[in-house]
Specification:
mainly beta, five-stranded antiparallel β-sheet, 4 helices, 60s Ribosomal Protein L30, Chain: A, 5 strands, 170 residues
Length: 170
C-alpha cells in the first residue's frame, strides 16, 4: 500500500571508499565528485558503521492526506555506532516532478531495528556503490480517482517542503 516508491536493478558502476566523513554536507560533496552527469539519475548504496546518523520517519497519516500533510509530523532519531546501509537516489533537477531532486537517502540498520530518511551522518569509513541510471519507467495507477485527478500543478514546492530541503546537492 505504498503511495510511491523508486526502485532499480542495482549494479554498481563505481565502488568507492570514503574515509572520515564528518557530515551530510561533506558526504554529498564527495558523492558529487563521482557522479558523471547532472542529467542522469544515480542510484546509491552505502554501507558502514556510522559513528552517528540522524534520520526521520514520517508518522502514520490518514488516507487521502496530501504529501505535505502526511510529512508534517515526523519523528527524528539519532543513533550512534550503528552498522547499516544507506540506499537512495540522486535525481536531476529537471525531473523534480517525478522524484525529489538532489540526494534522497534512507537508512536501514543491519539488524533492521531502525530505518528512515537520512538528515546527517558521521563515519570513519564507508563503502559507496554508485549506479548510473539512464532508463526511467513510470508506472501509473489506473484507479478512477487517479484517472480523474487534476495533476496540472507543479509539485516541486510540496516535495521541497515535505523533504525539509535536505535533498539538495551542492
Amino acid at each position: 500500500m505504498a503511495p510511491f516508491w523508486t526502485t532499480t536493478f542495482f549494479q554498481a558502476d563505481q565502488t568507492l571508499t570514503f574515509h572520515d566523513v564528518v557530515s551530510w554536507s561533506d558526504f554529498i560533496q564527495r558523492l558529487d565528485q563521482h557522479r558523471n552527469s547532472e542529467n542522469i539519475f544515480s542510484a546509491i548504496r552505502v554501507h558502514g558503521v556510522f559513528q552517528q546518523v540522524d534520520y526521520r520517519v514520517a508518522c502514520k497519516a490518514e488516507a487521502g492526506a496530501s504529501l505535505v500533510e502526511a510529512t508534517s509530523h515526523q519523528a527524528e532519531f539519532q543513533k550512534k555506532e550503528i552498522s547499516g546501509t544507506l540506499i537512495g537516489f540522486w535525481t536531476p533537477t529537471y525531473a523534480r516532478t517525478i522524484n525529489v531532486p538532489g540526494y534522497h537517502l534512507h537508512l536501514l540498520s543491519d539488524d533492521k531495528s531502525c530505518a528512515g530518511h537520512v538528515l546527517d551522518l558521521k563515519a570513519r569509513e564507508l563503502k559507496v556503490d554508485l549506479h548510473n541510471e539512464n532508463q526511467v519507467t513510470i508506472v501509473l495507477p489506473e484507479t478512477a480517482e487517479f484517472l480523474k485527478a487534476d495533476l496540472n500543478g507543479d509539485p516541486a514546492a510540496a516535495l521541497e517542503k515535505a523533504d525539509g530541503q535536505q535533498s539538495t546537492s551542492v
